[in-house]
Amino acid sequence: MKVFISKNEDESRRIAFDLGKNAKPGEVYSVTGTLGAGKTLMAKEFARGLGISDDITSPTFTILEEYPGKIPFYHFDLYRIESPEEIELMGFEDYFYGNGVSWIEWAEKCGYLLPEKHISVTIEIISDEERRITLEYPFD
């Protein structure tokens, strides 16, 4: 487990960029945090770290946005999902086991569908600018 205290958005961006730069095909990042914690901000920098230059937006209404690159990037926002069964019916689970990297915001809504081997990213608000970012790796 690694814990970072980010003093501002720039530090959060650097953490996310480094995560993306070191990501490997098939990895799943389960991202949790309250509204406004910075999940999408970090997704944008994570994608940049993967070498993706597209404008990354929150897929709240589409649920999934796919971005091609050396390693495909699958950006999920499960905010509007009610149950793991919805994810299953849409076939999104297949992405979790593909050759891309999955960044799943509101990952707690995946329930039993979340792969056992996933990297947990928890973003907690400390103050208006500060965040505690906790990374937990499978089988630490």
Overall description:
By secondary structure, the chain is an alpha/beta fold. The chain has one domain: P-loop containing nucleotide triphosphate hydrolases (Rossmann fold), CATH 3.40.50.300. The protein is 25% helix and 26% strand. The protein has a seven-stranded mixed beta sheet with strand order 1-7-6-2-5-4-3, with helices on one face. Strand 3 and strand 4 form a beta hairpin. The mean pLDDT is 93.
Tags for this model:
140 residues; alpha/beta; Rossmann fold; 7-stranded mixed β-sheet; 4 helices
Q: What characteristic shape results from the CA principal axes?
A: globular
* CATH class placement: Alpha Beta
SSE arrangement, N to C: EHEHEEHHEEE
Rg, alpha carbons: 14 Å
Largest sheet: 7 strands, mixed
CATH topology: Rossmann fold
Reported CATH architecture: 3-Layer(aba) Sandwich
Structural class: alpha/beta
Give the tally of β-strands. Answer: 7
Strand content: 25-35%
Question: What is the fourth-level CATH superfamily?
Answer: P-loop containing nucleotide triphosphate hydrolases
| Structure annotation, total helices | 4
The percent range for helix content is 25-40%
Q: Report the span from N to C terminus.
A: 7 Å
Low-confidence stretches: none
